[in-house]
Amino acid sequence: MTLRARIALLTTGLLLVALLVLGVVLHGLLGNFLLGSLKRDLVEASAQVARLVDLGGQALLEAGLPADLYAEIQLVLEEDPALLAREGGISLQKSPALGVHRLLVDEKAYKTLLETGEVWTEVALPREGPPLVLLVYGRKVEVRVGGTPWKGLLLVGRPVEGVRATLAQFARLYAATALLVLLLVFLLLRPLLARALEPLEWVAAKARTLVGPEGALPRRIEPLPEPLVQDEVGSLVRALNGMLLRLQKALEAQVRFLQDASHELRTPLTAILGHVGYLLRRTPLTEAQRESLEVVKREAERMGKLVSDLLELSQTGSWRLEPAPLRLLDLLEEAQEEFSKSFEGEIRVEASPDLWVLGDRDRLHQVFANLLSNALKAGAKTVWLRAFGVEGRVVVRVEDDGEGIPEEHLPHLFERFYRVDKARDRARGGSGLGLAIVKAILEAHGGEIWVESEVGKGTAFSFTLPSAAPLPPPP
């Protein structure tokens, strides 16, 4: 997910939460206001009825209860909340709005009314369709009938469906408005974010151009143009330019080192090849001497090619591969022949002559040379070079019965300059670069490498290479 999308979603989400909280608060405030107004109306209506009750029963009977009010005056002969909830008190007067129904509350409300003198509750009156819900206010009164005072209860109520309808309408309007606001914010946010993040995207695009094809670094890293505005983006660009300047200096130092090293190595290699060639052409040699000189010549020529590649690497930043169909058995036997002369143990080759791979011969020779050299340094007595085909690829295993590698070191073996035992590896001439080079070469061939090892039993390096069709026989 892009940064622009994350900011848009986060902003929209925060706005949604804010609108939800605001909606809940406004809904509660509106509900409290409407219910408060309704309660004030009921209190005023009950006060008017109470004044009529104070004037006496005859005045009450003559005036009657307001027609728009759901009200009833009940005489209480026995203060029993359960009995009152079932039958009610003696109905002295009812408003016309009640019709044939009585205004009775539940037992708990009657109990509160008798104990405290007033109560708020809700009553559902039956009617066609859903029942009519009333907000009821009850209070104690004293009714004089024929000059005799009686304990009474005054219950007045009004419907709450108007309040609930208003709240429902408010919720619908608010939800529609909130959705519209969210949609507008989302639509407006995208171009605003695009405009705000455009400098960052431009910086990222410029940074991507610093790396050439196949990861090659340019000979010169140009700084990024700094924006005129003094904001976070400008600070980022200036910091990047400082880093690029230091990187440019490091690259220039690296190129100088590689060029100087390549130049210095060419001279002794030329001398070695010249003297070996002279010995091969002009001096009588035994078969063993000639074979050894041929090995020296071949390795010196390979080293010369590596020096040339090193020089090319200093100029282009990448290794050059010349892949071609190769018979794998030839590569394995060549490595076996080269290392058998300096190895007191045994190197065994197990591979079908029909296995062909697509690769660079010299680079793959480096791979086998590094892996065999590591096996010999590990004290192996026997090394197996095995190969087999699997689903269009070739798997090669270099196994040994050496000292093995502790498990905690296995994930780091292919890191540059990593050594399992620094003191012992340094004594053996190791630099910690061999396996890193092996991994880079195999990845350049489109393969991969992994390792299995157990202390005291040995190590097995496995890697894959793309398979190839055999070369046609010469005419």
TrEMBL record:
SMART domains: HAMP (SM00304), HATPase_c (SM00387), HisKA (SM00388). The keyword rRNA-binding does not apply. It is found in: Membrane. GO terms for molecular function: phosphorelay sensor kinase activity. Residues 260-469 form the Histidine kinase domain. Keywords: Kinase, Membrane, Phosphoprotein, Transferase, Two-component regulatory system. Residues 194-252 form the HAMP domain. GO terms for cellular component: membrane. The keyword Phosphoprotein applies. It catalyses: ATP + protein L-histidine = ADP + protein N-phospho-L-histidine. Its EC number is 2.7.13.3. PANTHER family: HISTIDINE KINASE 1, TWO-COMPONENT HISTIDINE KINASE. This is histidine kinase. It comes from Thermus oshimai JL-2.
